[in-house]
Amino acid sequence: MNLTDLLGELQRDPWPVGSGKRPLRSTGVALSIAVGLLECTFPNSGARIMLFMGGPATQGPGIVVGEELKAPIRSHHDIDKDNAKYMRKACKHYESLASRASNNGHTIDVYACSLDQTGLAELKFCSNYTGGHMVMGDSFNTSLFKQTFQRVFAKDIKGEFKMAFGATMEVKTSRELKVSGAIGPCISSNLKGPCVSDTEIGMGGTCQWKFCGLYPSSTVAIFFEVVNQVSAYLIQNI
Predict the structure, then answer these.
(1) Separation between Cα atoms, residue 238 and residue 227, nearest integer Å
(2) How far apart are alpha carbons 111 and 205 in whole angstroms?
(3) 8-state DSSP, 67
């Protein structure tokens, strides 16, 4: 018995859905419970939370769209015009959960399979902060999704999973450079120092970052500020 077999045996929720209604999904509550359970049982340890979504959250904290089908889910135009009814509160809720998970070194994966939107824009913090996967597809039953999901558990020649947890990266610079920030699947460790720039790019204000999840394909960009142009010029021409 493996995870793909378990997914294949999942049945549709038997709770009746009224005409003109969306199924009731408490995604934000379910994710909150998962984060809370790992906080209590495995604090500061490597762990994964896998969220499987068949549609957008329609009730409770983290709601993305209402239950009524006549009310469409927010569009890109609504987001640009800051006219998305639930987006601000949903983003705040999921960002809070992502911060809690990342502080304990836990990774959150999001697997969303639906022919309609599922609210991944609101859930982006879960992957960005914790280094988790975000996969979108049409159906959980397709061979493409199953093959993609199996690759998460790929092993190397030693028989070990191609994943790591709880990494820390610290950048130290010479006097001519200061660190502006990092862009990648990491969170700030809030470590201040003389090499930290006042100009922030990405996750700035620190010279140390924490990675909850790492893979062979993980990448991160570090940005620097040249604080002494004259010294830098002299060094280049020595």
Answers:
(1) 19
(2) 32
(3) S
Q: Are 99 and 126 in contact (CB under 8 A)?
A: no
pTM for the model: 0.86
**pLDDT tens digit string along 67-87?**
998 989 999 899 898 898 999
**What digits encode the pLDDT tens for the residues 148-173?**
999 999 999 999 999 999 999 999 99
Question: For residue 175, what are its two tokens?
Answer: 């006097």
3-class secondary-structure state, position 223: strand
Give the torsion through C-alpha atoms of 160, 162, 165, 169, to 10 deg: 120
Host H or E run for residue 138: none
- Kindly state the helix (H) or strand (E) to which residue 156 belongs, with its residue range: none
DSSP string across 21-55: BPPP--HHHHHHHHHHHHHHHSTTS-EEEEEEESS
- Count how many Cα atoms sit within 13 Å of the Cα of residue 76 in the half-sphere of its side chain: 0
Is the C-alpha dihedral spanning 7, 112, 50, 64 positive or negative?
negative
Confidence of residue 35 (pLDDT cuts 50, 70, 90): very high
Instruction: Provide the CB-side half-sphere exposure for 88 (13 A, CA).
Output: 7
